[in-house]
Amino acid sequence: MQKAVVVDPTVEGEVKWFDPVRGFGFIISGTGGPDILLHANVLRNYGQSSVAEGTMITARVQETERGVQAVEVVNIQSRVGEDGESLDDFEFEDHSHIEMEPARVKWFDKVKGFGFVNVHGVAGDVFVHMDVLRRSGFAELQPGEAISVRLGESDRGAMALEVLSWDAALED
Fold first, then answer.
1. Measured between alpha carbons, how far is 40 from 36 in angstroms, rounded to an integer?
2. 65 shares a domain with 16
3. What is the dihedral sign for C-alpha 4, 41, 96, 12?
4. What letters, b where the CB count within 10 A reaches 16 and e where it falls short, cover 81-109?
5. pLDDT tens digit sequence for 80-118
């Protein structure tokens, strides 16, 4: 068996697709070349269980017998909207001044486009909308998944304004 060789240690690209059920997807490098395999374990090590198609991602990669694959996710940025427009083009309020709170996913239904998380110290469930997930670079959430959120209030109660990986709260 041939040893894996590091190609370009860091590659910036776009998520071509990612299927959390199958446990993998592919990244298209911004500099061209073959698609880069993104395994679910590599994504989980970053703190996410999914990533939305079109999301900009920076990863460390290596060449293996089976092709180029990501070995570490370095950064995940906002994704593009369903119509191809960048979600960054829309006027979203900057929520970085709001403290991140650790949370655990209660349930999330991608088809319905929303779900709920539990945040320590917050009474009741916290609403999470699909648009917030997409803007945050997630494709979906899994029950029991640990995440970080920035909270806001709506007329119906607490809601997530931003969703981040669990580790993001530690880095903040």
1. 13
2. yes
3. positive
4. beeeeebeeeeeeeeeeeebbbbebeebe
5. 444 444 444 434 466 778 888 999 999 998 888 899 999
